Amino acid sequence: MPALDDIAAQKLALLDEKQLRRTLREPAAMQELVSFSSNDYLGLSAHPKVIKAAESALKTYGLGGTASRLAGGNHAEYGVLEAALAQWKHYTAARVFSSGYAANIGVIPALVGAGDLIIADRLVHACMIDGAKLSGAQMMRFAHNHLDHCREILAAHRGEYAHCLLMTEAVFSMDGDTAPLQALAKLAEEFEAWLLVDSAHALQPLEWEKKPENIIEITTLSKALGALGGAVLGSQLLVDYITNTARSLIFSTGLPPSVVAGANAALQVVQAEPQRAQRALALAQHFANAMQLAPAQSAIVPLQLGEAKKAMEGSEKLAQRGFFVPAIRPPTVPPNTARLRFAFRYDHTDAQVNELIRTLRELGICPCEP
Ligand SMILES: *Cc1c(COP(=O)(O)O)cnc(C)c1O
Question: Is the CB of 101 inside a 6 Å radius of any atom of ligand 1?
Answer without folding.
Answer: yes
